[in-house]
Amino acid sequence: MTGVESIAVVTTAGKHAEQLSPYAEKLASENGFVCIPRNKKSINYLLQEYGKPLLVVSKTKLELYTTVDEAPFFYHPNAASLRFKQLLKTGRDPLISEADVKPGDQIVDATMGLGADSLLLAWAAGSKGEVTGVESSRLISLIVREGLRSYSMPVPEMKTAAARITVENTKSEDYLSLLDTDSVDTVLFDPMFTGAVSGSSGLSAMRPLVNNNGLSGYLLEEACRVARKKVLLKDYSRSIIFKKYGFTLASRASANYQIGYIDTKERTI
């Protein structure tokens, strides 16, 4: 693949460039990206020179720069760590409770994003369960896939859960359309950046890459077709999507986001 066709370029951090070069070259080759030597050039200089998103390989993480003077995007479990520790301590999490996850469940996180929900769902589904995270952005899915594989999780159970997650880089509707009817237990939708819920400033670099098409009637029908138990929607509290598509809301009056569900056993499409 040529530099013109490549959607991103890969380079190394300024330090340890020689040591990091083999991984940078492998990452570029596997994904059809262009690998360039750092040569002490600044991030802003490389962004302007190549006019493409820049993936920077360091000893501890893979960073994505999309615009000049913007903080990089890299994998971090963020709030998932707090939720995970609380789940281990109390055995409770609002999403896990509403999803009614059982050991061995097969779950599709149809809007994976950073994979926080996927981590908790994978833990709840146990060693015989399976979680597939679907992310339409090629660069976001790459960052998250590499992060789940290599990030030093704060608790061992998170690392175990991360190993059970399969990341699929495709559109949700395309992925679900290929699945057999009643072939998974639960499908989750958690659209990013649709409401007023504030996030980390470090997420700014990923905003241009996010698919903001939202939940459509066709996508919901496909989710209800393949899910044996429930289709879940996690969205900000004032979202009109819950009412529009007939989701039953959980009781979370004081929360800044809500969880709604459709019981597919009782729904007729």
From TrEMBL:
<dbReference type="InterPro" id="IPR029063">
    <property type="entry name" value="SAM-dependent_MTases_sf"/>
</dbReference>
<dbReference type="GO" id="GO:0008990">
    <property type="term" value="F:rRNA (guanine-N2-)-methyltransferase activity"/>
</dbReference>
<dbReference type="Pfam" id="PF04445">
    <property type="entry name" value="SAM_MT"/>
</dbReference>
<protein>
    <submittedName>
        <fullName>Class I SAM-dependent methyltransferase</fullName>
        <ecNumber>2.1.1.-</ecNumber>
    </submittedName>
</protein>
<keyword id="KW-0489">Methyltransferase</keyword>
<keyword id="KW-0808">Transferase</keyword>
<dbReference type="InterPro" id="IPR007536">
    <property type="entry name" value="16SrRNA_methylTrfase_J"/>
</dbReference>
